[in-house]
């Protein structure tokens, strides 16, 4: 996909801004990927130090055996976040993270009864990761360096 296909067409209200928007496109996308990946890794860093610590919580959601799902949750957040930030195996890492976040939407909205207000951050993060599931990483990524991506 070319950058022209990624952006809506039409004339800018302030045409002089076109060069800035065009020049910052890759930077903005890379910044979003790196920040999202690092935020996910930081969030998962507490879990990775005790990878079985969430076993009871995941079993309460119906995921059995809890030890397995807790380990997968910890690894998905921590290592998946690092992969997303680096832009390595971006699509599968973002997909796994998106699934985790959709489960947290269910947890907060339905299980905890918090509705949209409780699930809002998870919805936003799931949407960000969905973007990278579809888009993949851009030219500023390890995927691009190796010339292969999912």
Textual characterization of the structure:
This is DoxX family protein. Belongs to the DoxX family. Keywords: Cell membrane, Membrane, Transmembrane, Transmembrane helix. The chain crosses the membrane at residues 68-86, 93-110, 122-138. The protein has helices at residues 3-6, 18-49, 55-60, 66-86, 90-111, 115-135, 142-146. By secondary structure, the chain is mainly α. The protein has one domain. Helix 2 (18-49) packs antiparallel against helix 4 (66-86) and helix 4 (66-86) crosses helix 5. It starts with a helix and ends with a helix. Mean pLDDT is 92; it is low at 1-5.
Q: In total, how many beta strands?
A: 0
Structural class: mainly alpha
Count of separate structural domains: 1
- The helix tally amounts to 7
Radius of gyration based on Cα positions = 18 Å
Largest sheet composition = none
Helix content percent band: over 70%
Pfam families: DoxX
Subcellular location: Cell membrane
Keywords: Cell membrane, Membrane, Transmembrane, Transmembrane helix
Protein name: DoxX family protein
Write the layout of secondary structure elements.
Elements (H helix, E strand, L loop, with lengths): L2 H4 L11 H32 L5 H6 L5 H21 L3 H22 L3 H21 L6 H5 L4
Helix pairs in contact: 2-4, 4-5, 5-6
């Amino acid at each position: 996909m070319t950058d022209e296909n990624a952006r809506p067409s039409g004339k800018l209200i302030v045409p002089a801004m076109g060069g800035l928007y065009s020049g910052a496109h890759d930077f903005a996308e890379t910044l979003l990927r790196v920040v999202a990946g690092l935020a996910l890794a930081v969030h998962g860093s507490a879990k990775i130090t005790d990878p079985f610590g969430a076993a009871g919580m995941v079993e309460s959601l119906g995921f059995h055996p809890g030890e397995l799902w807790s380990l997968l949750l910890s690894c998905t957040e921590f290592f998946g976040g690092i992969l997303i930030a680096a832009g390595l195996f971006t699509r599968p890492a973002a997909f796994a993270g998106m699934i985790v976040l959709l489960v947290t939407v269910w947890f907060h909205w339905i299980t905890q009864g918090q509705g949209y207000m409780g699930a809002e951050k998870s919805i936003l993060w799931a949407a960000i990761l969905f973007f990278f599931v579809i888009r993949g990483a851009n030219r500023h990524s390890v995927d691009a360096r190796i010339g292969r991506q999912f």
